[in-house]
Design brief:
The complex is a heterodimer of chains A (111) and B (116). With 111 residues, chain A is mainly β. Helix content of chain A is 0%, strand content 51%. Chain A has strands spanning 3-6, 11-14, 19-21, 23-26, 32-38, 44-50, 56-59, 62-65, 75-77, 86-93, 99-101, 105-110. In chain A, strand 5 and strand 6 form a beta hairpin. The N and C termini of chain A lie far apart (41 Å). Chain B has 116 residues and is mainly β. In chain B, 35% of the residues are buried. Classes of the chains: A mainly beta (111), B mainly beta (116).
């Protein structure tokens, strides 16, 4: 079946450090891929998406590239800020338009 | 534009009581999803609707849970009777069918439910 695997957290970084959060997926076909972010006490917000192989999604300095050959969609940011501290979820959309989420990765950025 | 609106934001009640969670999707969205989030199980899809009709309720944990969507602007998730293991954050999300495969789901801020 379809599934998403994310690296376990928490990931703790100093401000301005480089961020990578790994995400790999298992799916039939070529699903659309998403990164969502959840700030404390809030719902999930779409961060970025990619709908086909080699697409790069980007938003607010975050980027992720849809890699079909490695079935990956790693999230990166060149210089994190304290305000980026949150939980990040990788997800794929299956053929029934349901989102399959990874377990989430907590990011803590220290000043 | 108003986002997905959920109520109440917090609910604390004793086991055995009936709990009703409410959701107003974004106007014009024709898909509505109910999720549950816990530390142990992460985000789980409970049920989703298309044009007010339940499409997949395979994630509903048991008969104590029920969901309805009487019209395009309102949905409820009901737990009767409630149990302590139902304590979680419940999210509602909505999306548009247009270009569905790449349409994001828009989430509400959730209802934090505590069953004592």
């Amino acid at each position: 079946g379809n599934s998403v695997t994310q690296m376990e957290g928490p990931v703790t970084l100093s401000e301005e450090a480089f961020l990578t959060i790994n995400c790999t997926y298992t799916a039939t076909g070529y699903p659309s891929l998403f990164w969502y972010v959840q700030y404390p006490g809030e719902g999930l917000q779409l961060l970025l998406k990619a709908t086909k192989a080699d697409d790069k999604g980007s938003n607010k300095g975050f980027e992720a590239t849809y890699r079909k050959e490695t079935t990956s969609f790693h999230l990166e940011k060149g210089s994190v800020q304290v305000s980026d501290s949150a939980v990040y979820f990788c997800a794929l959309m299956d053929s029934s338009y349901k989102l399959i989420f990874g377990s989430g990765t907590r990011l803590l950025v220290r000043p | 534009d108003a986002g997905v609106i959920q109520s109440p934001r917090h609910e604390v009640t004793e086991m055995g009581q009936e709990v009703t969670l409410r959701c107003k999707p974004i106007s014009g969205h024709d898909y509505l999803f109910w999720y549950r989030q816990t530390m142990m199980r992460g985000l789980e899809l409970l049920i989703y609707f298309n044009n007010n009709v339940p499409i997949d309720d395979s994630g509903m944990p048991e008969d104590r849970f029920s969901a309805k969507m009487p019209n395009a602007s309102f949905s409820t998730l009901k737990i009767q009777p409630s149990e302590p293991r139902d304590s979680a954050v419940y999210f509602c999300a909505s999306s548009s069918a247009q270009g569905m495969s790449n349409q994001p789901q828009h989430f509400g801020d959730g209802t934090r439910l505590s069953i004592l």
